[in-house]
Design a protein that fits this description.
This protein is α+β, with helices and mostly antiparallel strands. The protein has a domain of 93 residues: Double Stranded RNA Binding Domain (2-Layer Sandwich). Helices cover 46% and strands 14% of the residues. It has a three-stranded antiparallel sheet with strand order 1-2-3, with helices on one face. The chain is elongated, with a radius of gyration of 27 Å.
Length: 133
């Protein structure tokens, strides 16, 4: 995965933002909307596309477009930087293949320790009862 090539394929749109900024909010388009067309991407291989399709299926539209918004800052440029970082984190996280988990046997000492603790707890509770004559 080539980050520069990926970033060059991104489409940005500036929109009027809600939130902090006072009257400036009504005049300046500081919110940034990022769109990434996964289906037509040349920066990703077919295997990477398939992996992203499965991992990001909740975040993709029907046309396989990933849309991210950012209106955290008053500056359009800063919002663009934030949304690009967020996009790269999402893509890198989705492309990371998890290691296969190896099932391990619980050690005998751990089992014995748990049973001993249960017995001692049982004895404590038993000693609280009234004695039967």
């Amino acid at each position: 995965m080539d980050k520069e090539k990926l970033v060059s394929e991104l489409a940005f749109k500036a929109v009027r933002s809600s939130g902090a900024g006072g009257q400036n909010v009504n005049k300046v388009s500081s919110k940034v909307v990022l769109q990434f067309d996964l289906k037509h991407s040349a920066a990703l291989s077919e295997e990477e596309k398939e992996l992203l399709l499965t991992k990001l299926e909740n975040k993709l539209t029907k046309e396989q477009v990933l849309i991210l918004n950012c209106d955290e800052d008053r500056s359009q440029l800063r919002n663009k930087e934030i949304v690009i970082k967020r996009f790269l984190l999402i893509v890198e996280g989705a492309l990371k293949v998890q290691k296969q988990r190896k099932a391990t046997k619980i050690p005998r000492s751990v089992i014995e320790k748990r049973l001993k603790e249960k017995r001692s707890q049982s004895d404590v509770k038993q000693s609280r009862k009234k004695p039967r004559y």
